[in-house]
Design brief:
Layout (H helix, E strand, L loop, with lengths): L2 H13 L3 E2 L3 H5 L9 H6 L5 E5 L5 H9 L4 E6 L2 H13 L5 E5 L5 H4 L5 E7 L17 H10 E11 L2 H14 L2 E6 L10 H4 L4 H8 L5 E6 L2
Parallel strand pairs: 1-4, 2-3, 2-5, 3-4, 5-6
Antiparallel strand pairs: 6-8, 7-8
Length: 224
């Protein structure tokens, strides 16, 4: 994407009512007005809040919002030029139950209050295979603690990835730390009885992986 196109998207994002772009300082200083108030201030209902972390173009968040009108969805990504597409689609399709938050995922517990979130999806994250980069893996123990803080006590986590490495790493970590694995599958599209919200929604890149017969893995779990 050219820099001119990016700039255009950034400017458009500023005008979208469903896009929120707090500064790092605003979050870290504890001044973020939507923290603890997402349902009251933006969604104006008491429906469950579901996050998609590293939402990319926002395809999954938008598709989930269409599928589950009685839930509120927030796609989170630091790259606003990417989720511009999802935000624009949500506005064009009059989806009041989806929003986008531009921030780093390591600041997630500054953007949401304790027990504010019902469910979290992590879809196709960078597996960060190099050993020294484990601190950036979105399912490492530090990130899990952040998620636990904002999730309700019975909150659900979902990891959908094309990376066997990420799948194995996360499963091992969950078992080792005593977390509750509710469902795990190495190839959700080849397995009968896979959860419908996992197989009925595909991102652009996911459909490309499937064309190449690349297995898509999935884990559903609770953080104890």
């Amino acid at each position: 994407m050219g820099s001119k196109n990016k700039l255009k998207r950034f400017k458009e994002n500023d005008t979208f009512a469903n896009v929120f772009q707090p500064s790092r300082e605003e979050l870290v200083n504890g001044n973020y007005t939507l923290k603890g108030e997402w349902n009251t201030t933006f969604f104006k209902n008491k429906n469950p809040i579901v996050l998609e972390l590293g939402c990319g173009k926002g395809e999954y968040s938008v598709a989930l919002a269409q599928k589950y009108p009685n839930k509120n969805f927030i796609g989170v990504d630091i790259k606003g030029a990417r989720f511009w597409r999802g935000a624009k689609t949500a506005l064009e399709d009059n989806l009041p139950n989806v929003a986008f938050l531009r921030t780093q995922i390591e600041l997630i517990d500054y953007a949401f209050a304790e027990n504010e979130v019902d469910e979290i999806w992590i879809t196709f994250p960078d597996p960060q295979i190099k050993y020294k980069r484990t601190k950036h893996r979105l399912t490492n123990l530090v990130f899990l603690e952040r998620y636990k803080h904002i999730l309700k006590p019975d909150g659900i986590m979902n990891l959908k990835t094309d990376s066997e490495f990420m799948h194995g790493y996360t499963l091992g970590l969950l078992h080792g730390a005593g977390h509750q694995v509710l469902y795990a599958n190495h190839n959700v599209y080849k397995q009968e009885g896979s959860p419908e919200e996992v197989t009925s929604i595909q991102t652009f890149y996911e459909s490309q992986y499937l064309e190449k017969n690349k297995p898509i893995t999935y884990i559903k779990f609770k953080i104890n």
